[in-house]
Design a protein that fits this description.
Blueprint lengths: L6 H4 L1 H20 L3 E3 L1 H11 L1 H16 L10 E11 L6 E15 L3 H67 L5 H35 L8 E3 L11 H11 L1 H22 L4 E15 L9 E11 L7 H67 L5 H35 L6
Helix pairs in contact: 3-5, 4-5, 5-6, 5-8, 5-10, 7-9, 8-9, 9-10
């Protein structure tokens, strides 16, 4: 008589595969640990490594380097020159060799060089403001990416809980069906919902992976760098509308940059008007020169020479170019003033809108939290009644989906409110602080 094969031995290869997979997962966790990432850590990494932040700082360094009196022609120019000339007339050929040091300096050009240096100084400050604006814009992108990832991460956890509940419900339905206490339709309904929740978890996992990759790129890390995310969010409640407007007018980089450009246009006008004044240039040279017969380069018996001179020049007429430049500079100055006023009005409007939007988002968050409390109580009661067979599968599923939807809404409202807070800080120039 043949003995049937033991079912335990039949499933032993599958057990070995499962154990092997578990071992791989555990070892992978030790080799590539997922460190939690907080918002402050993300900002710190971005300030140190983000490409756009580094480019902005380099651009600001260029602006600082340009603030030099040499760039405004306020320093003399020195040059060293040497040469030789061979002359072969009809009688005797000669060679003239010379070497000299020259200096030139503009003593007065209508103060145009002074105004150019002051414009360079404002340009250095403008470069710093433009760099700060670029950095703040990048930090806003990082913040949005971080909280999008946090939302995806929290949503993944919510959907996994949804799947866990559906899995428990399916197991209970199968067990009750085995004992004749549930209809086949109940088991099929639980299976459909379970598979639907599997799809939801798969989609949530993909979204989490995608947002994590996007954040890694902004932090200048390998896009597959593993990490979990800190979903803790704290809100500031000390905002005052009038203080926010005042802070924006004092600190907003875009507005301050517009004012700096207006100051530059004032110096452009003064530079243009300086061309109506006379110009005084100084020049001097000291060198040696010697003439020798035939082709003979030599400075052994050279004669020293010193030349000092000053040139006063005044452009009487250049085809109305100075007048046109002066007029255009004045128009440009007016345009800059109009831009400053327009920027101020837009900034005040944006700060007010951002503040009200932030307050509204906090109100929405409070309402969503209250709805979540009701949804949790409703699901808890519905689950108890479902286990007692006093509510239908449809009623249980509806309560389950309401709970998951409510938790997702709370998470979304929480992160949207935080992004609006960060935007408000950016507008008022407090983001980097």
């Amino acid at each position: 008589m043949n003995n049937p094969k033991s079912p335990v031995r039949k499933h032993e290869p599958m057990k070995h595969i499962i154990l092997f997979l578990i071992l791989i997962i555990v070892m992978w966790g030790f080799i590539y640990p997922e460190e939690p990432l907080s918002f402050q850590q993300a900002v710190t990494i971005a300030l140190e490594r983000n490409h756009q932040v580094l480019i902005a700082r380099n651009t600001a360094a260029i602006s600082r380097n340009n603030v030099n009196i040499g760039n405004a022609d306020l320093l003399p120019e020195f040059s060293l020159s040497a040469g030789t000339t061979y002359l072969d007339p009809s009688d005797v050929a000669t060679t003239t060799t010379n070497a000299q040091v020259q200096v030139t300096y503009t003593l007065f050009d209508g103060l145009g060089n002074v105004y150019r240096f002051k414009k360079l100084q404002v340009g250095g400050e403008l470069g710093e403001l433009e760099a700060r604006n670029a950095i703040e814009t990048t930090l806003l992108q990082v913040s949005t990416a971080f909280y999008s990832a946090a939302s995806a991460y929290e949503n993944l956890q919510i959907t996994q809980e949804l799947l866990s509940i559906s899995e428990e419900r399916l197991a209970r339905a199968k067990k009750r069906s085995a004992y004749g206490q549930a209809r086949t339709i109940d088991v099929l309904s639980a299976q459909v919902d379970y598979h639907a929740d599997q799809v939801t978890v798969t989609q949530a996992k993909f979204l989490w992976d995608e947002t994590r990759r996007s954040l890694n790129v902004l932090l200048n890390r390998e896009y597959q760098h593993p990490f979990t995310i800190d979903t803790t969010v704290e809100f500031r409640q000390d905002f005052d509308p009038e203080q926010l407007k005042s802070a924006a007018l004092s600190n907003n980089a875009v507005y301050l940059a517009a004012r700096k450009r207006s100051v530059q246009s004032q110096y452009d006008l003064r530079i243009a008007r300086s061309q109506f004044l006379p110009r005084l240039d100084f020049s001097g040279s000291y060198g040696y020169s010697q003439t020798a017969p035939r082709l003979h380069i030599d400075l052994n018996d050279a004669e020293p020479s010193l030349r000092i001179g000053a040139t006063l020049s005044f452009n009487l007429f250049n085809g109305f170019k100075r007048k046109i430049q002066s007029r255009n500079a004045k128009i440009q100055q007016k345009n800059r003033e109009l831009t400053v006023e327009e920027t101020r009005l837009n900034l005040e409007k944006e700060v007010t809108s951002a503040y009200e939007s932030y307050q509204n988002s906090l109100l929405v968050l409070d309402l969503e939290k209250k709805y979540l409390e009701a949804a949790e109580l409703n699901f808890k009661r519905t689950r108890e009644l479902y286990n007692l067979g006093q509510v239908t599968t449809t009623q249980f599923r509806e309560a389950q989906l309401n709970l998951i939807r409510s938790r997702s809404n709370v998470a979304t409202a929480k992160y949207e409110a935080k992004i609006k807070e960060i935007e408000l800080l950016r507008l008022t120039g407090q983001l980097i602080q």
